[in-house]
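Now for a typical sample entry:
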Amino acid sequence: MKKSLIILTLLLVVGLLGYLFFQNRSHFTTEKWLFTNGVSREMGSAFTRYPKRDAIVNDLITHYNLKKCNYREIIELLGEADYSIEDSLKNEYGLIYTILIDYKWNIDPQHTMDLIIIFDLKNGEMNPKTPVKRFYIDDYYAK
């Protein structure tokens, strides 16, 4: 009796911890990705600007095959990027989607996370059919 009570208590604790850990994770939708709380990029951090991205980015990269997408499909799925970069030496063009910026109690960001999608510029220019070359999450923590 005592042993089964301990096992039941342990299962309840593990279940509660699992629920608390996974409750903020949800399924990706374009609407959730594009949702902002009205704070502009200039007025506040992305932590408040895009409150749902951190919770859905894992579902996005796990269940959507971004490497098989082209530029047009990425824009349809994720909207316009927050920033873009170009590396003419590597013939690459990148879109940067801010996931979060957390300043904690500092003037400088203490944690930033971006989704970076790189396109292959074989002919040296972007067009709607330019394929995704690679993508990754840039997750930075200040020391």
Notes: Helices lie at 2-22, 30-34, 46-49, 53-63, 71-78. The chain has five helices and four strands.
